[in-house]
Amino acid sequence: MKIYLDNSATTPLNPHVLEAMLPFFTDKFGNASSIHSYGREANRAVSEAREIIAECINARPSEIYFTSGGTESDNWALKGAVYVSKNKYKHIITTQIEHPAILNTCAELEKQNVEITYMNPSNEGMINPKELSNLFTENTILTSIMFANNEIGTLQPIKEAARICREQSVLFHTDAVQAMDSQKIDVKELGIDMLSMSAHKFYGPKGIGVLFVKTGSRLGKLINGGEQERGLRAGTTPTPLIVGMAKALEISVRDREKNNQRILRLRNIFIDRVLSEIPYVYLNGNRENRLPNNVNLSFAFIEGESVLMRLDLAGIAVSSGSACASGSLEASHVILSLGVKEELAHSTIRFSLGVDTTEQQMDYVFNVLKKTVDDLRRMSPLYDYEKGIGSYV
Amino acid sequence: MKIYLDNSATTPLNPHVLEAMLPFFTDKFGNASSIHSYGREANRAVSEAREIIAECINARPSEIYFTSGGTESDNWALKGAVYVSKNKYKHIITTQIEHPAILNTCAELEKQNVEITYMNPSNEGMINPKELSNLFTENTILTSIMFANNEIGTLQPIKEAARICREQSVLFHTDAVQAMDSQKIDVKELGIDMLSMSAHKFYGPKGIGVLFVKTGSRLGKLINGGEQERGLRAGTTPTPLIVGMAKALEISVRDREKNNQRILRLRNIFIDRVLSEIPYVYLNGNRENRLPNNVNLSFAFIEGESVLMRLDLAGIAVSSGSACASGSLEASHVILSLGVKEELAHSTIRFSLGVDTTEQQMDYVFNVLKKTVDDLRRMSPLYDYEKGIGSYV
Amino acid sequence: MYNDKVIEIFKNPKNIGDLKDANAIGTIGNASCGDIMQVFLKIENNVIVDAKFKTFGCAAAIAASSIATEMIIGKTVDEALTLKNADVVAELGGLPAQKIHCSVLAEEAIQAAIKDYKEKNNG
Amino acid sequence: MYNDKVIEIFKNPKNIGDLKDANAIGTIGNASCGDIMQVFLKIENNVIVDAKFKTFGCAAAIAASSIATEMIIGKTVDEALTLKNADVVAELGGLPAQKIHCSVLAEEAIQAAIKDYKEKNNG
Ligand SMILES: Cc1ncc(COP(=O)(O)O)c(C=O)c1O
Ligand SMILES: Cc1ncc(COP(=O)(O)O)c(C=O)c1O
What we know:
Chain A is an alpha/beta fold and 393 residues long.
């Protein structure tokens, strides 16, 4: 049995998406910038894809810019806002729980003398937008708050944060990479200026993303060259990936409610069962205000990677910390920011369900997990197996 | 009949390449950074692809960095070298005939007070590397000279240019995007520090490229985030694209000699025929020192786009100027840099042959072309149809 | 890019060539910009009885030349003077944004030809 | 990542648990770094007759603990002291670069246990 519970790291391509992409690899392969028939055919497909994606978030097609993924979109939003700003001193507000695509971009900008303020979350992983008002300075050019966190799945109050920023004429960007699949996103209603997405998080292809940029927002370029994407993002248009992204988002939106309900139910049963049947387990992040497919648990006295590897040996794929940070010896910055102690932070596992997850699978996962935790605690110096209690040696 | 003679703009995906990619979309879809079995499977495929590509250019696998394409590679090479340099004043040497991915990056860097020197080509489109010695200043950090020009196909003396730069401890980058398919490239023997490539120019997928960076060359980051590509290029690894790129390059290298010979023969017959049977036609770029698949001709008295559109109506895809510049009213900067007069520069067409081009196709193209030139000259105010001579009204 | 009508006209343009007995010629644009449009008119009693063109330019320029000459044949000189580039674009069923200037050339070439006629006759 | 041997040992580690009659205990690492290794030794006539471990850590840490305890059983205390982390890595058939520190922990835990033994007996 192989069970994939790492859908927040990446998702399998939907076969219908692949089908939509196929003609554009070998047959309708033209360069969308070419003016001959091959080019026009590709160009039409790209235009249609742009329209579909725009419609999915209630934007205009001209506000959709294709990038190589969520990371590039995040880099572009932040650096582009900085490059174009005429302020002598520049200030950006973001949060401690952002993805490395934001945090490491901020670290880079700090080297370039941009001042960054990192908001901290509550111990349930929520950002309080009311705190924003105290953080604005005359130099604040941008606020970037993620829509949903990639580790603990918490959904942030984007609408209120965007409103507060708008009142101060501060640009508002949101990294919606994790939110796209399950959340209804209407950029107009939410009042968002920029939004990042990445196709492979919603059963689309890897290597393609979008930055939504509201008409009128000025943005510098990250990648210079040809006149693609209305002159703002150069590089030969990857038509098959773009077509695939649009198809994937279209399907995601169409099936969203149905999938959310089903996955949410499996998710909740699983959390309840683990919390009631395995001792010393803690759920990270607010229980209600989170992505329907996210489970993030800390298993006291045992280390996350060894749990992950045991599950892997049983055919179950999960994540300890985020995939990018794998191989690092540091506990997750997100879990630590919740005030979780370092040793417990090292004991964290994320299960992220997907459209293919079944009840049978989750039963099996629960059983393997219970035995795994038992086995590993048996060899933990932090746990007294005889007494069934934790103790620090 | 549909005939594609725009292989320098982009190529169709080789069906064997698609076949190699397919399992990684829906089946082996894991995130290559994940440590579970899905991740390890993807990671192995990426490692193998990196080895294949490294071997094709005689580099080490650790010197191969995946990007979203040639444009990103070019941006990264130039900006990365600037960002990491501790020089107070920075100077880059490049040429007037580079692709916009280099030229517009240079224009951006000029805004950031980097000084750029643009070498001019001979009227046959060749750069003279001996001129380099007079151009170095104490601030010169990098020279970037394209391997083969995308419009006129001229092959530049990369080995000598690299040697001269090495003697001055100046980094040497080459944009080899157009050269990869037909030229043998050994980065060690050529003494190259950085090299850009793009898969879709050699029958691989769009949206994936490589920057080769020689061990020991320091380079700043263009895209910050996760620890992918040894921490230098963040973003979820696009496994299917990477696998496809490696397969495409492997096939290209394997079939190179055979394809080159066949294409070169068709190309030479075509050039000879056009030059001898259609009056007032001029070949741009050195005739010998050029890509085997490139034909670039100026047809006096008639405008390029109308030639292109006529050929398109007959099922033939060619390019006027480079694809990126399409829709622009300016004549090609490459053709102008050869000293060609502006009106003649507006009369330029690029035919770029490919692995699927046949003798029959080229015969048909010649016949359609001859009639097209005739028809358009008949309606040209620059041509006296009765007398068969040009005249400026 | 181009709509079917533009393509069709570009494929089979009308009114190509010199007009041997033209009594008005207008030339606009220059080759270094990639566009030259030349309009020949035969005007009798202030009515344009025939019009031809020669154009060095893109498909849009050729289609605009063709349709513009068609639009003015049979019109009086004063009527022809009211032809605006937007009329040409409308008659073509639209042009890509970066090709609108081709329709402007057509308007200007006709005006230049009529100016030539007026200068010759009144001047 | 891990080779098959590491995975196999991680799957079925040897010498897990407390040693009731241990006369030497060494503990290295701390939970905030994500690694704690505890080694229990039973030493008779300067010979390690039994060894067990408890480990809070990744697969590499658990595999290293298991193999290291196996490697020292039957050895004299002085022989065990010569065990280097590189020996543990070699016996495991290699470890990923970022996991080498797990083998260092194994070496140090054994040395700590032997130090404990020597202090108790000589000190
Ligand atoms: C919240 C968030 N932002 C950004 C990214 C980066 O997206 P990508 O890896 O597709 O570039 C990810 C996923 O890796 C993510 O989860
Ligand atoms: C010489 C050259 N450099 C760079 C590029 C850019 O490559 P890409 O469009 O794949 O980003 C191209 C092609 O477009 C090219 O011909």
